[in-house]
Write a structure and sequence with these properties.
- This protein has 388 residues and is α/β, with parallel strands linked by helices.
- The protein has 2 domains: 167 residues, Rossmann fold, CATH 3.40.50; 205 residues, Dehydroquinate synthase-like, alpha domain, CATH 1.20.1090.10.
- 48% of the residues lie in helices and 11% in strands.
- It contains 15 helices and 8 strands.
- A 6-stranded parallel sheet has the order 1-8-5-4-2-3, sandwiched between helices.
- The chain is globular.
- Bound molecules: 5,6-dihydroxy-NADP and zinc ion.
Length: 388
């Protein structure tokens, strides 16, 4: 087992009705609040009205940065930072999914930055000065409520970069706020959670029992609860388990004690979304089984990891070997094929014209060439072609 450091300073308040304490928590930081939200879902489901009246009744002054895009753009970060600088904002309140929270983290750091905002995103480092970020999570997916990452896109350069900002100081996770997430987004978010668990699980270290067990539990929780949440959107326990899984899966905890495996599907997926502005979880759902088939064929020494996956995640039995290993991947394909999202790039109307460029950019920081099974640029192109 490898050495690791555990550091997650976020106060996570989980459960029904937890946002009732929002005014009390926000008053720790001051009265001038920048509310960051997306394209309007919080207006349709009533969360916006509830929070804004709760805060104005308690003497807060609210400024707004609305319209954060899925795959948030650096121009929105600049817009939010300008509001912070011009209005002596005390804290940034993100109400939404990963895009809104990522954007809020970047805004909170950009509030102290006078250089170009995209340079700030690219100069990723922990400990940068930031306004406090408080989040109200409305969608289970990225784990942004419990980590220090913020993924920001630059449509001009067609880049999407995962930068390190500050951790949210407090995150409110009320599963009932996710009842209104439509089936497509529920499925994409769950595919993302599954991918975070799998990207930690498929590593060369097989002595980190606790982390592997956590990843297996996360995968099983998604496989069990997603179909329930799709059928019964207001099933509290299904939504609650997906929400808690969201926070843990991307927290780093499933990676503890393991050699960093590269997170290859995320590396490729981010570059893919930078070009096509596509939905993060859906792209991962298309890529992951193809990546699995490719690496298992290329390097049979990883077979035992896949047979463990087959046994412990899919309850398969049988002799160890490639048959069982591939059967586990088939189960994953079957599951992802039944949750109402695309299973190929052609279904998204995408052809291979940008694959070379995506493959070239994906290897940033060796995330493909120095991964669980090292991949060349041509390997990545082949995996992408297999997704068509
Ligand atoms: O725009 P709004 O109104 O917020 O609507 C959103 C959006 O249309 C909607 N939605 C969210 N909560 C809802 C709801 N609709 C109805 N009811 C609700 N309660 O769902 C749509 C998708 O939202 P978005 O925030 O884009 O989804 P997600 O949470 O999947 O975030 C995706 C972004 O996070 C990044 C991705 O790359 C992508 O840019 N990631 C961030 C990570 C991190 N910070 O650690 C790690 C991840 O791997 C990922 O890369
Ligand atoms: Zn992800």
């Amino acid at each position: 087992m490898e050495n690791f450091t555990h550091y997650i300073p976020t106060e996570l308040r989980f459960g029904k009705g937890v946002t009732e304490r929002l005014p009390e928590v926000l008053s720790r930081f001051g009265k001038n609040i920048l509310l960051v939200y997306g394209g309007g879902s919080i207006k349709h489901n009533g969360i916006y009205d509830r929070i804004t009246s709760q805060l104005s009744d308690n003497g807060f002054t609210l400024f707004e940065c609305a319209g954060v895009e899925p795959n948030p753009r650096v121009s929105t970060v600049e817009r939010g930072a300008a509001i912070c600088k011009n209005n002596l904002i005390d804290a940034v309140l993100a109400v939404g999914g990963g895009s809104v929270i990522d954007c809020a983290k970047a805004i909170a750091t950009a509030a102290f930055n006078d250089d170009d905002a995209w340079d700030m995103v690219l100069h990723s480092k922990p400990g940068r000065k930031s306004l406090p970020v408080i989040t109200v999570l409305t969608m289970s997916a990225t784990g942004s409520e419990f980590d220090n990452k913020g993924v920001i896109s630059n449509p001009e350069t067609k880049e999407k970069y995962s930068s390190v900002f500050s951790y949210p100081v407090v995150s409110f996770c009320d599963p009932t706020l996710t009842y209104s997430v439509p089936p497509y987004q529920t499925a994409c978010g769950s595919a993302d959670i599954l991918s975070h668990a799998m990207e930690a699980y498929f590593s060369r270290t097989d002595t980190s029992e606790i982390s592997d067990g956590i990843a297996e539990t996360l995968m099983r929780a998604v496989i069990h609860n997603l179909p329930i949440a799709l059928k019964e959107p207001d099933n509290y326990d299904a939504r609650a388990n997906l929400m808690w899984a969201s926070s843990i899966a991307c927290s780093g905890i499933p990676d503890y004690g393991k050699i960093y495996p590269g997170k290859t599907c995320h590396a490729i997926g981010h570059e893919f979304s930078a070009v096509y502005d596509s939905t993060h979880g859906e792209v991962l759902a298309i890529l992951t089984p193809r990546w699995m088939r490719f690496i298992l064929t290329k390097d049979p020494s990883v077979t035992s990891r896949f047979t463990r996956f087959a046994r412990r995640v899919w309850d398969l039995t049988g002799e160890d070997g490639s048959g069982l290993a591939f059967h586990g991947i088939e189960c994953l394909e079957q599951f992802l094929g039944g949750i109402g999202i695309a299973t190929s790039f052609s279904q998204l109307g995408i052809d291979d014209r940008h694959f070379t460029e995506i493959a070239r950019h994906a290897d940033l920081r060796g995330r493909c060439s120095n991964s669980f099974v090292p991949l060349s640029e041509n390997d990545v192109i082949e995996i992408l072609r297999n997704c068509l």
